[in-house]
Amino acid sequence: MAATTDAPKSLEDLKGVDVDGVLRGKFMSKEKFLSAASSDGFGFCSVIFGWDIHDTVYSRELLISNKSNGYRDILASIDLSTYRRIPWENNVPFFLVSFLDPDTKEPLIVDPRGLMRITTERASEIGRQCFAGIEYEYFNFKETPQSLAQKKFTNLQPLTPGMHGYSLLRTQLNNDYFRDLFDESAKFGVAIEGHHTETGPGVYETALAYTSALRMADNGILFKYLAKSIGMQQGIIPSFMAKPWGNLPGCSGHIHVSLRDSSDRNIFAVSDSELSGGRADAAYDDTKFMSSEGESFLAGVLEGIADIMPLLVPTINGYKRLVGGEAFWAPNAITYGYDSRAASIRIISPPSVPPSATRLEVRVPGADMNPFFALSAIFLLGLRGIEKKLKLDTPPISHFSPEDRLSGKARMLLDCLESLLTKAGGVDSIAREKGMLGDVFVEHFGGTREHEVRLWNEAVTNWEVERYIELA
């Protein structure tokens, strides 16, 4: 990228995150910024939690932001630890904000950063720190916002043709864009561990470097912002939609998680003395190189994953990615297994990695997830499993037959958002429990997803017109 000049001295860029994971913010004068930074924050219209990804007000009144309270201001608290400069935007200073209740000054649980803070605080209460990594797959198109609208989002031109996963040839095409994603991320404070082409026309995969969970969620949102910003400069649109095309693999947002103690030790790891043969009291061979606490964390995720699915897969489109099978490696059952990419939860432990790298990879989310909500839900389930000392009640299973599905050996995940909302919002849902998400979050977030379902149910698709308009 071209070198940038010194940043304007009069502007600060402040951004928060809405329910859909979209950055919302404003530029602020230096004087106003200093005033807000030295107090509880500044007023920010609560409508960002009352409208959808296209700024349409939600179908029903929600608890945090609604007509009855006039979409009153909430407090935007500037997180000074997130300071960085935007290298592709004249080096303007950049900060993330978290949103607080204006009366209590407590974090809003429906604010993505607020929920993540609440989650990490719950972990710290039992002496644990949450760590995570995210891998994004995303299509890239030779398009602009204007051309997308003119083409009515059809017949889009992929950045490169063909299925070229891990290709060293395709990286040479659009080389400036490919390298800028990596280099500008480093300047922007979003560390990348790996970056390569993935299977599909114009598809990349970017693995963000492992770090603390709040920082990882920040980095996940900021990487999307960076990719879209750099892409716009070069006539490229990166898409993090979960399933843009029916006949091609979808875009995953795989999440890696682990816990550490106050001495920075990975508590999922077995002791040195157990490395030769594994833990004697392990539930199954697949978990013998995980600690008993790691097993309980895994059991907690398995027990509750069906109740928090809308947080892992928040869009109508996301469920079309979860087709199962080896073709797309998008699992749609409650399964786990050692180093298995066909399972919903992949155990990564010795002997494939050192004990310090022991972790779980949750492979259900797509690239369209909100990383704050997805990470929070996973960690809250895992912490619940540890606190309840849950045991694994099903054996590992990666591949399953139709008979396994019919018999119940393979427990399937519900395959549409509407059905999952009924389960997740039910009175007995694990999501509603104290120490989990609670009623306020479930009601508010559930209302936003009901809005998505209503809009989908009212839509008339091209498929319907092509199928019925002449012959029905």
UniProtKB/TrEMBL annotation:
Occurrences of domain GS catalytic (ranges): 112-472
PROSITE patterns registered for this protein in UniProt: GS_CATALYTIC
Recorded GO MF terms: ATP binding; glutamine synthetase activity
Entry keyword set: ATP-binding, Ligase, Nucleotide-binding
SMART domains: Gln-synt_C
Gene3D superfamilies membership: Glutamine synthetase, N-terminal domain, Glutamine synthetase/guanido kinase, catalytic domain
Annotated TM spans: none
Family annotation (InterPro entries): Gln_synt_N_sf, Gln_synth/guanido_kin_cat_dom, Gln_synth_cat_dom
GO biological process, one term: glutamine biosynthetic process
Membership in a protein family: Belongs to the glutamine synthetase family.
Protein name, per record: Glutamine synthetase
Organism: Mycena maculata
Native organism taxonomy: Eukaryota, Fungi, Dikarya, Basidiomycota, Agaricomycotina
